[in-house]
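R.M. (postdoc): so does anyone remember the format we settled on? I'll just put the structure tokens first.
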């Protein structure tokens, strides 16, 4: 087994910005990075590898024009030459089960899917708060909105609940995610 020395985070941020122009998608990617770093720490995994997977998981979204039959597959192929470990590339491929045609099975795959998905729900909840700040959002507000299917209807609740598949109850997962996002909320536009 060969050891992969990843490039710098700055390199990967620049790569993201070369491929993603929508500021909301860049914010989502940065948020996903923050949550995945927190999850890596929680599980004793490599924070850099998990963070970069969170950062780059949607790198192909504008290239494939949100085509769910290609999204993730194209991104994984793009990243093969970027000195990213295979397990990160596979997690990126698997965050969209539709394109892969397989079910997520590893800790990393479930963590990336749940972690990147909860960011959308947290963003939506923050936007209905008077100050529109992630740091003001309460765990109970996010969990309550999980049950309201019409609220942020495009956010897949089943994917978020994969946190329980990897042993983190939804309240704890929400707290972890909020704690990861609050310090970077200005960078995310909140």
């Amino acid at each position: 087994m060969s050891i992969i020395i990843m490039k710098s985070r700055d390199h990967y941020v620049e790569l993201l910005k070369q491929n993603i122009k929508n500021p909301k998608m860049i914010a989502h990617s940065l948020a996903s990075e923050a949550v995945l770093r927190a999850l890596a720490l929680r599980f004793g995994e490599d924070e850099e590898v998990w963070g970069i997977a969170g950062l780059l998981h949607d790198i192909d979204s504008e290239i494939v024009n949100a085509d769910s039959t290609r999204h993730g597959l194209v991104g994984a192929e793009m990243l093969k030459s970027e000195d990213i470990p295979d397990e990160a590339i596979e997690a990126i491929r698997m965050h969209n089960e539709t394109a892969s045609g397989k079910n997520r099975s590893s800790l990393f795959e479930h963590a990336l899917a749940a972690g990147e998905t909860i960011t959308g729900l947290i963003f939506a909840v923050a936007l209905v708060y008077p100050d529109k700040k992630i740091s003001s959002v309460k765990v109970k507000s996010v969990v309550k909105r999980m049950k309201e299917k019409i609220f942020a209807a495009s956010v897949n609740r089943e994917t978020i609940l994969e946190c329980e598949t990897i042993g983190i109850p939804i309240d704890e997962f929400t707290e972890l995610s909020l704690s990861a996002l609050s310090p970077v909320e200005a960078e995310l536009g909140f």
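R.M.: ...and that's the designed sequence above, right after the tokens. Also worth knowing: The radius of gyration is 15 Å. The chain has one domain: 9-185.
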